[in-house]
Amino acid sequence: MITRYLTDCRWQVGARGAAPRLISVLLLALAPLCSGSTMAIAADSLYRAQAVVTGQGEPNRMIGFGVCLEDVLIQVSGAQKLAGDPRLSAYKAKASDYVRAYSYHDQMAGTPTRDEQGTRDRPYDLNVEFDEGKVDELLRALGLNPWLSHRPVLAVFVEMEQGTRKYMVTSDARQSELQRESLLGAATKRGMSIVLPSSAALDKLGITRAEASTAAFSQPASAASELGGEVALAGHLVWSDQELGWATEWQIDWQGRQHRWRLRGVTFDEAFRRGLGGAAQILSDNGEP
Asked: Domain locations in the chain?
């Protein structure tokens, strides 16, 4: 079932709703200890993305192509800093020039059309595959290079905290199902490979949820090694009633340096994208998040 989900998730690039969720998140990426839960990113999939559009008309398709082009440029380069970059506006307007193939999936397949709705107003997943050579050339024009070398599997530790309630996101706990799906989607969107732990794996290691968070921040290298990951990414999300969003801190140790970054007042979906995207930017040598 996990394999089926991860295969489907490979095309997932759309964002969740903007409404804040009243739960905090801590991510954990494991490899061998969580058999069947590894999410590997194939090189060719970096040049594919998905956007949700209304109908199959050309105007909305062109908008979808632009959204997907930005996502692919970030996936291929690892440079999260391209998100919202004003330099991309001109390229996104002509995104169809970079498209190799596209297809639609009707989100309401099997649902009868309503009066005056037809297929024009139905939501579709627009799956887009871009020309690799053209995307690589565009990245170089932007002063970046494609990140096609080995991408380390992230052992990601993330703790969610809301008041006195704290827990880890695992591959099997029902209470973290939404966060788990969001995390896997964020990893796909940012072109990173992760593994999620099962509750049994944490118990087998003798790591409590509180200890996992502390260990990830204080001893990331040993924590990642124990769990089978190549690099540890630690995150701590705390819900703020005042900001109606999550206050988030991330940490990754890479090539002898400790990197930390923070953001506030965001949904956990955005926190995951910024966490995994920030890790990708560091690992791809594109600067700090």
From this structure: 2-41+151-283, 44-141
